[in-house]
Specification:
mainly alpha; 0% strand; ABC transporter involved in vitamin B12 uptake, BtuC
Length: 384
């Protein structure tokens, strides 16, 4: 009985969602296991005490409720938000590699709001900081979106260049207009308590930014699945020519809007990091969250709900890497190597799936109802 048969059982929407989430959760869990195995092999090859290092990894990420809440979930929060930014852009066919720069722009804007208005705006300051971060991230994506729409400039190139520009801008701000009053350290002064995000769980470092990230993930999933705007975005990303000719969609406007919304999400990630974790802006405030977000989004299959789980996996790896370096004298860059291997594996598996699907499609006489067609492009393939 084929999927197109009238007698085939039809799944209800909740069951389809549950099945999709279950598939991605199992894939993410398998990737986590694979990451641990790859890390073990690297540790043994490097002559490190693998047992001690893995114990430190576990204790620093999942070994206790405090480690999970205050390390893993805190690290996962900006990864989820920036992962949503990448997933949204990729679903629209926009290869936004600039989440890192947009995150830094959002962090700078939130720090400026906190330092300037933290003592006068009171409880409204965190909201203003988040809004400023979203606006700054969107504005930072604007040049690349304009160049893409007006002149056809590849956004991969323009967003990477904007990443470096944002990095240098932060360096200028913390040594110039926003430097702390004594001008000793290259950072801003600490934002007032009124400008800081409140704690989500008492006695831990977990702040309400994590709840915001989960809420935004659910909202983005709903928009993509159940709204006309989400349909236009998905169709534009899947096949721009078909979207323009058959669905009468303004593809350029849709993809530009998705680009700016993606920048806003990454900007919120930076604002959350300043308002909820560091309480100040300084150089290297991001250890590469915007780049890791690409892996987070790809591992989740560009599914906003699955981004939550994949963000937590990478958050655990990041938190465990710090613990390994501190307690087992293992360079944290080991985990970065593992993350790179995960990205390569995801791309290889996606390419294999597309190749096998194209072969099946050809062997069955090119009937599009039988298998995936050779023209179908997934988000992971688009990232290459």
């Amino acid at each position: 009985m084929g999927p197109s048969d009238p007698g085939a059982p039809r799944l209800t929407a909740p069951l389809r969602v549950a099945r999709s989430v279950a598939v991605w959760l199992s894939a993410i869990a398998g990737t986590g296991v694979l990451a641990v195995l790859a890390l073990t092999a690297l540790l043994l090859a490097g002559g490190y005490d693998a047992e001690r290092a893995l114990r430190a990894l576990w204790e620093g990420s999942l070994g206790s409720s405090y480690a999970f809440l205050s390390a893993t979930l805190v690290r996962a929060t900006p990864l989820i938000l920036s992962g949503l930014a990448v997933a949204l852009a990729f679903r629209a066919g926009v290869l936004n590699i600039g989440a890192e720069g947009q995150l830094l722009a959002g962090a700078a804007a939130a720090a400026a709001v906190g330092v300037t208005w933290g003592g006068t705006a009171g409880a409204a300051t965190p909201v203003l900081a988040l809004l400023a971060g979203a606006l700054a991230g969107s504005l930072w994506a604007l040049p690349a979106a304009y160049l893409r729409r007006r002149f056809g400039v590849l956004e991969v190139i323009s967003t990477i260049m904007l990443n470096f520009l944002a990095l240098y801008l932060v360096g200028y701000l913390v040594r110039g207009p926003l430097q702390e009053p004594l001008h000793i350290y290259p950072q801003t002064e600490t934002i007032p308590a009124a400008a800081q995000l409140s704690k989500l769980v008492p006695g831990s470092r977990l702040h309400v930014g994590f709840a915001l990230a989960v809420l935004l993930a659910g909202t983005l999933w709903w928009v993509l699945q159940w709204t006309a705007a989400g349909f236009r975005l998905r169709v534009s990303g899947a096949s721009p020519r078909a979207a323009a000719s058959a669905a009468l969609i303004n593809v350029a406007r849709t993809t530009s809007a998705a680009f700016l919304a993606s920048g806003a999400l990454a900007g919120v990630a930076g604002a959350v990091e300043v308002s909820g974790v560091t309480y100040a802006l300084y150089e290297n405030i991001s250890p590469g969250y915007g780049y890791t977000a690409i892996a987070v989004a790809l591992l989740a299959g560009l599914n906003p709900l699955a981004v939550i789980a994949s963000g937590i996996v990478f958050g655990a790896l990041e938190a465990g890497a710090s613990a390994m370096q501190r307690d087992a004298a293992v360079p944290s860059v080991m985990v970065s190597v593992v993350e790179a291997l995960i990205i390569l594996l995801l791309l290889a598996m996606d390419r294999l799936r597309l190749t096998l699907g194209a072969v099946t499609w050809w062997n069955r006489g090119g009937d599009p109802s039988q298998s995936v067609g050779p023209r179908e492009v997934s988000g992971a393939e688009a990232a290459t």
